[in-house]
């Protein structure tokens, strides 16, 4: 579904010498955030909201966005990625998901990068500028919530993994990523900026995001398109952190040399390269596979970079890349069919793209991992998955999903 675009937007970006702290500026209940370290975008209010679903959701969004940006009247005195007209977005994982995919254009954006800060105000046509005030607000009182296992529970998850391994042994399927959910409930009036602040502080290497109630801290860059260049960080293959420095080093070395994890990782790198090949030039994996250290675990990581060869924007590349083998499996169609059968729940936006797009199609998108979706009634659902290959062990994969749920459970707990 799409609204009848294009709307005519008037956009003005001005340099700002005020605060660089983004989280206190956000709406406590409807935050819009994209942040890593001292760089990011905070959105307040909503001037335009576009909703999509089904297999054409990326193409529909790209078409509408091109029409909206072509019709917009933009004044931008800063000229950095993330200035001018920007929409935040979160997309459903599955073509058949009941969850809406959305692009949201805020009324006010505060951005910071490269030591500079800017404010963008956006309004519909010639409407008077009723944009929200640029006002940091004290973070609301503390709260703690517990999460309970959802579908499948731990036993069900182990059984699904065992069945996934059995199907891989049968032949045809090489890898499948299986996930599970946990559920909690936020107290009325809970200030979401509290959890976002915690995520941003605890996971500085990750993209801390909040879009339409989808929030988390993802280490995986699905695609970054800036100045005609494309990059992606592929993650797949994980290990627990060691209890001391020696054990930690051994954990990273063990991960790098583990045939199980390297095969899991190779599937993900190959799927990303194959998806980018028709759109990119001079694609390279740079220094190759490395171990990425996060507070809760190690990941095998590969950075792919290149030039855009066909004029694709970031939304076009989402359609090409999603879902990678880091969140679906290999071959993709068999993996998706297996996920439908064995997981037994709608992933919603978990493992879908989340990020922002600018007027020239540039943008930064992560895979929505280490995240939770907030419902209108305060229900909150966190999800985590693990890549299953021939050598997977159900207990180890269950333990891995526990580590991956930690960022959310601790941010709210
Ligand atoms: C599916 C998830 O992680 C993916 C990304 C990194 C490592 C993964 C793994 O080792 O299984 C997964 O492919 C998740 O965090 O829920």
Structure report:
It is a single chain. This protein is an alpha+beta fold. It has one domain: Anthranilate synthase (4-Layer Sandwich), CATH 3.60.120.10. Helices cover 27% and strands 34% of the residues. It has eight helices and 23 strands. Strands 1, 2, 3, 5, 8, 9, 10, 11, 12, 13, 19, 22 and 23 form a 13-stranded mixed beta sheet that branches. α3 packs across α8. The longest helix has 19 residues. The chain starts with 8 loop residues before the first strand and ends with a helix. The mean pLDDT is 95. The chain binds the ligand C=C(O[C@H]1C=CC=C(C(=O)O)[C@@H]1O)C(=O)O. The site of the ligand C=C(O[C@H]1C=CC=C(C(=O)O)[C@@H]1O)C(=O)O has 17 residues, from β11, β15 and β23. Belongs to the isochorismate synthase family. It catalyses: chorismate = isochorismate.
